[in-house]
Amino acid sequence: MSPSAGFIRLSNVGALPYRMISRIIVCSVALSVLCLAGCVQDSPPSSRERTVSLLLELLIDQAPEMRRTAVESLGKIGDPQAVDSILRLKHDSAAMVREASVLAMGRLKPTATEGVVALLRRALEDPVESVRQAAVVAIGEIEPGPQLLQPVVGLLRSSDATIRRAAVLALLQVDSSQSIPALVAAGRDSDAEIRQGIVAAVGEWGGATASPWIRERLIEDPSPGVRAEAAYRLGMLSGPEARDALNTAIAKDPDSGVRRWAK
Question: Which of 75, 190, 204, 258 is the most exposed place for a label (fewest CB within 10 A)?
Fold first, then answer.
């Protein structure tokens, strides 16, 4: 293939509407990005810089599809200079752009500054489920430290169950050992799925000291899903007290799934 084969001659599209021209540019850029993402080490720095510069300009394009394509491409390229521009997309009116910006941030894995964590926290509170899910994935990629996780921990007290659920899933992804007291305090949430997630997070990051609380959940929680999670987590802990609690569940729990996980 000749060097010019992959480029669009814009002189031939002068009569086209602005939006169509923009779409052609985006498609051309996307093709360039695929090449850059696969062989970035072999690309001349000037070519990479031009591509990144064009993509940054497209982040403010009128069409949400183009903003989404641009931010996805920036995430694939992995250029750290894009972080500040992507942070501004947390206020974008289009859910598809907000979702793409959060996933791109996860790909970039920037230092977990207060601005980055603010983006992730806002995404966890987003009214659109796919954006909240993207935030959970990105938090797992970026792994904010315990202090910067506090805004996420605060979402456990949200009045919206979908936000509390997203916060629990996020805390399960990263080292939440310093957030165990807050998780335990939220452990009697009215939503069984959230309680199950809390038991999973406490079991994952709480260590042996979490055993008494997990044993309590195995005995007292009304939800079979929560009790099964507690049984599974206790099975990963050593100690006679954990084993006694599991044996009791095998003998007495009315749910077959809980009894199975307790074995």
Answer: 190
